[in-house]
Description:
The complex is a heterodimer of chains A (about 90) and B (about 550). Helices cover about 40% and strands about 20% of the residues of chain A. Chain A is α+β, with helices and mostly antiparallel strands and about 90 residues long. In chain A, helix 1 runs antiparallel to helix 3. The two termini of chain B are about 30 Å apart. Chain B: Its main location: cytoplasm.
Amino acid sequence: MSTRTVAIASSTGLHARPAALFVKAAADQDVPVRIRVGDGPAVPAASMLAVLSLGAGHGTEVTLEADGPGADAALDSLAALLARDLDAEEAADA
Amino acid sequence: MPDLDAPPRVLHGIGVGPGLAAGPVARMASPPALPDPRPVTDPDGELADAVRALEATEADLRARADAATGEARDILSAQAMIAADPTLREGVAERVRSGDDAPHALRTTFDRHREILAALGGYLGERAADLDDIAHRAIAAALGRPMPGLPAPGHPFVLIADDLAPADTVGLDPETVLALVTERGGPTSHTAILARALGLPAVVGCAGILDVPDGTLVTVDGTSGRVGAGVGEEEAAAVRARAADERSRLAAGRGPGRTADGHSVDLMVNIGSAADLRGVDLDGVTGVGLFRTEFLFLDRKDAPGLDEQVAAYAEVFSLFPEGTVVVRTLDAGADKPLPFLGLPEEPNPALGVRGLRVARDRPHILETQLEAIARAAERATADVWVMAPMVSTPVEAEDFVARARAYGLHTAGVMVEVPAAALRAERLLEVADFLSIGTNDLSQYTLAADRQSGALADLLDPWQPALLQLIGACAAAGGRGGRPVGVCGEAAADPALAPVLVGLGVTKLSMSPRSVPAVRARLAAHERAECEELARLALDAADAAAARAAVLSAGP
């Protein structure tokens, strides 16, 4: 199984708009991706409710997991997304 | 032809958004009641029903998101994603397999996720209420009922509802909604705040409005709180014509606030961030009378840093290069919990550690904020004032003023929200440079009526003579010491109350930006001596309704 560990860069944490962007990106991957905080249970990254329920704030380290062909590419793109401050990008859009 | 003075039925509520409107009513559909559970004979069919209900909910939310813009669009898109959530579907499937019918499987599954979010507290805890909204929609779809939420009758309408919550009004289009009338709710309810933000006529606490059938023509007077139900087309047309006249008269009003005889009154605006001023006509506005700083602190686990705060304050200061900006330090605590404050829950949060009281044990948040305000002020040409919320004693005021001055903030005042502060206004002004009266909290504490309580709306009415008497005491103390005393609660946005407040001696009125034209017009219609007479009439009344009636019948 491939894994990536990344700290949440968005200033409000993995909530609201950053969570929506992440969940949508996870659902668009070809492999199912799971996400966990520390040694907690891994939950589907394509589930908004599951992702919100992680309660991951700014700076929280999360681990992404996936199996199979394409797993590494999927994890790289999702980890890169989480490493960006999506709230700041929102402000720039406004 | 109908008798114009005697429409079929007159209802009375509390006018919270001035202005006139007439049109057919359409109601906010209420959430469906959950019927008794029924035995499930075909689990596959039941699951298909539940999934269809979730899909219909997702499609409805998606369509609403596509029609919305900005923040509303983001909120609705996130809600659509929740309706489509695979975890939710698994949960529903599990419930159906264990014997639940579709509506109960939906209810139970949503409730479980709601509890998880509520347990996380803070921002996510508040999102738990959004889940309820999605659950109501899905259950309505499963029962074959109309989706609860804003009606879309296809023509402009007067929106009627039991009460309006923020989630209900996301996507409310002020071009098609003519006015708001709610059965419950008070002057500080979300409905009132929304109406003022959108500039819509509104009446809250209007008993009987929900008995009026959809499509009935009504007239709404958002000043007096009078609603005429079942009026004829001619009366509706007359009211529309008066409303149009009123709008053009207000649009013609320009310049600073003053009475008919030239006594000047500072008209200022209440804002939460620089974004609130986009597209707002600031002609004659002397500045920001209440800059709420909470927006910087919400939705986060740690307090914002110094630099982030400096930048946010500087942005607002730059909008009023020649004006005054009154910054209120963080107003949070037991009533508005923030995770990084680490405050314990309290049985009576409104009476607990909130506002300036948070600084008793956690002064660093206040200190950082004052430093940030001072740094932003150094770079700005605006005259920057600071004030503390929830001050009760002159000693607290003195402590706050000393802290502010230590950072070089030269004008430091306090809010008057606690009756004790109003009673000791003269002593407060020995140390503070100004007072700003927060009428929403001052009502709540003076009348011992919870701000959130719709059932006590009449007590929370800013026309309560006891409240006006306390405002008068503060203004008199300000007058003796030559110090400004302003009002920055919802009361300041009520045009009919404006001359009363000025008659009591208030020197500044700060309100939502859209309320300025109506308040300016009303002030310009009275000489100062008339304002003082109106204040006497209001103070002499037995209750809020009598005070309003006395002033409106004496006015122009």
